[in-house]
Amino acid sequence: MNDQTLSFFARLALAFKVFFRIIANQEYAVRVSGLGTDKRPAPVRPTSFKEAHPDSALQLLGLLQQDGRFIDFLEEDVTGFSDTDIGAAARVVHEGCRKAVREHFRIVPICSDAEGSRITLQEGFNASLIRLAGNVVGKPPYSGSLVHRGWRVTEVSLPKIADGHDVRVLASAEVEL
Amino acid sequence: MSEGRFSLGIDLGTTNCALASVSPDLDEPQEIVSEVMPISQLTAPGTVEERPLLPSFLYLPHPEEFPRTELALPWNSEEVFVVGELARSRGTATPIRLVASAKSWLCHQGVDRRAPILPPEAPQEIGPISPLEASIRYLSHIRDAWNHVHPDASIEEQDIVLTVPASFDPAARELTAEAAGEAGFKNLVLLEEPQAAFYSWIQATRGEWRKQIRVGEIVLVVDVGGGTTDLSLIAVTEQDGAVQLRRIAVGDHILLGGDNMDLALAHLLKNKLAGKASMDLWQLQALTHGCRAAKEALFSNPDLATCPVAVPSRGSKLFGKTLRTELTREEVEQTIVEGFFPIVDVSAVPLTRARGALTRVGLPYAQDPGITRHLAAFLKRQVSAAEDLEGFAQTGSSFLHPSAVLFNGGVFKAEFLVKRTMDALNSWLRADGGSEARLLEGADLDMAVAKGAAYYGHVRRGRGVRIRGGAARSFYVGIESAMPAVPGVEPPVQALCIAPFGMEEGSDAALPTQTFGLVVGEPVKFRFFGSSVRRTDSVGTTLESWAPDELEELDNIESTLPADGRTPGDIVPVRLHARLTEVGTLTLEAVPLSGDERWAVEFNVRGK
Fold first, then answer.
1. Is the dihedral of CA B354, B360, B366, B367 positive or negative?
2. For chain B, which residues score pLDDT lower than 70?
3. What is the pLDDT of residue B464?
4. Which residue in A19, B124, B182, B539 has the most C-beta neighbors within 10 A?
5. CA-to-CA distance for B215 and B219, rounded, in angstroms?
6. pTM score, two decimals?
7. Rounded to 5 degrees, what are φ and ψ at B93?
8. Interchain CB distance below 8 Å, A76 and B74
9. pLDDT over 90 (residue A61)
């Protein structure tokens, strides 16, 4: 709660402001009438955040590098190269990274409708699966155009890592004898 | 027998191994489902993954090459060699330490298959291993991977069906069974790969197969694996009102497969790039992978005219160093379709080229890449394969007419190649006055062999249709006839039949009346022959002469008579007795005229 103090005049000004707002705004009036009763909102509990363990992230980077040269791709400066050169490299990266991702994740679209088609969202739709954008007003059912079908992982199968294996090594240096 | 056991099918392939199982609780034949069991393996140092295929590669690392824990497997923290995916990927950069194609070496008659000869030409400090040892290690890996997941059903106690090419000779079968024994498998049978593919098809039709093939038909199985091409003929017969399947013929051992096709494309593109950049072995391998992907894209999408192929540099710089080229539809058709599946006349004969006198020790790869030519030659040789079956008369045909074809192997995922092979076959059939053959649909091209083997292991307990076949060849021992020595003229050799064609598993051949003299205390060698076309010879039949492709000379067989109780140098007359074991291997014994002793006659696997 706010612990600052208010002067008499400040309180008087506030009383007038609140008086007129209660007359004009029905919803506000309902909320004020609830003050002083037990219908106050419960105090907000803090959400606990967990630290993401870096091992699987490092493992994935390693897989993307191993199969798709992902780190090589990102770590190089593209400015000096032609689109043809970049395109040739992108084929390697695309093919390899796709293989790595498909081998370890099963990824499915969230909406099966074609992008651009109109879809209707009923009340109680899952807001973490579907994000509303644009003219977000009113109440469900909402009707709108599907801009992006969304992706969701349904299965993960990451490789097992031996004790003592250093996942921070994304690609070992190579020396030809 | 064997209630409560899993039936496991193991496809010990030239380039990949696979494992499938049928759980013991299933009953009705229609419901038998073979499941592919993924195999845990190292996919990178310190990284273990389950994959449906275990690449048949073995890497023998330098002691300094990996930190100790990096080769650990869930069941063994002290492993010192690598099997599977990591072996294959490491081997690209260090081929001197990579054992590959062990299966082809296992049936290579020119080398000692128990001697440490792999990797070929490897420096001694690497500690080379024998083809037999490599097979043991692949099977042991599969054993440990299964046992790790099934601690209550150890693989040693389950029923194992291990597949071998139909064209494997008795020595190679024996070595395969020996490898399985060394790996600890107790309840083992061998099954020919094309038969396994056929069982898998039966299983996939869910009981409908009886509607798809009728009595009186002959099914041709064309199995093109990574490294070998295997052909078989299966006849649908009837006995006492029940449909019976009989494997009536198998083809020769042809070292030619899908890997050759990808390599051919890679060399084509390498030449295309030749002016622009040089390419090392590692890049050639990457190019081969790229070609395979591009080939599949072109075959699966008929609208595509070209498919780009990019080969990354080995270093960390990708831009500007990545080689880019493309594979055109025309090149694929020219190389794969015309090269490996040429439309030829049925009279075509596979080309053979005289080998140079000073060849390096290498695998006897097929010299003609034309699979359709090998197929034509096979059907011509087997023209009378169905002669002695009632209702199969094909009088006046110049080759055996199959009425249906089953394809197997990843190569045939390209439907175009299936169509091409069917077109070639049907053009021969039309020209020969026969009716066209049709394609049997619904085969699982990648996993059929392992799945079909597991299915067979289950039905051989008595719950479903079985393919009868027995020995795919008749076997002969060479007898040198006595004649005055003439310089430069080899004494003529007669061939004495000791095991007839179609001998069933678990049966004994009769004892021939002819005897041989075994010298006490000395190893005695016999020349040994097999025939896939002489199906009516019985034990004791002696051939004075034969057509060049009628009998194939196999490795010698040899026996040593122990000296105990006899005078070394004495000659004991013996007869040779053959038996086809339940496992599916041929055993030979020397039996003296009197007494009940038996001496083993061994296949010589020590090369010529």
1. negative
2. 1-3, 26-30, 276-277, 353-361, 463, 481-486, 490, 607-608
3. 75
4. B539
5. 11
6. 0.87
7. -90, -25
8. no
9. yes
Which residues of chain A neighbour B310 with C-beta distances below 8 Å? Answer: 88-89, 91-92, 95
Q: Kindly tell me the burial class for residue B152, based on how many C-beta atoms sit within 10 Å of its own C-beta (0-12, 13-18, 19 or more).
A: exposed
pLDDT of B132 reads 96
CA-closest candidate to residue B501, choices B387, B594, B601 = B387
pLDDT at B426: 96
Give the percent of chain A with pLDDT over 70: 94
Give dist(CA B150, CA B144) in Å, integer: 10
**List of domains in chain B:** 7-191 (3.30.420.40), 258-340 (3.90.640.10), 474-603 (no CATH)
Q: How far is B78 from chain A (nearest CA, A)?
A: 12
Interface contact flag, A163 B69, Cβ < 8 Å: yes
CA angle A72, A77, A80 (to 5 degrees): 130
What are the DSSP calls for B159-185, one per residue? EEEEEE-TT--HHHHHHHHHHHHHTT-
What is the C-alpha R_g of chain B?
25
Half-sphere exposure of A49 (CA within 13 A, CB side): 2
CA distances to B212, B346, B350, B372, B509 from B425, rounded to whole Å, are 20, 8, 16, 8, 37
Segment A14-23 shows an average pLDDT of 85
pLDDT tens-digit readout, A119-149: 999 988 898 999 999 988 888 889 999 999 9
Q: What is the pLDDT of residue A38?
A: 61
Locate the domains of chain A by residue range.
8-39, 52-105+155-168, 111-149
**Chain B positions in Cβ-Cβ contact with residue A64 (cut-off 8 Å):** none
Task: Work out the minimum CA distance from A118 to partner chain B, whole angstroms.
Answer: 31
Say whether pLDDT at A41 is over 70.
no
Say yes or no: ipTM exceeds 0.90: no
Residue of chain A with shortest Cα separation from B90? A174
CA-to-CA distance for B367 and B265, rounded, in angstroms? Answer: 17
Q: How far apart are CA B474 and CA B554, in angstroms?
A: 12
Q: Considering only the beta carbons, identify the residue of A81, A163, A165 that sits closest to B319.
A: A81
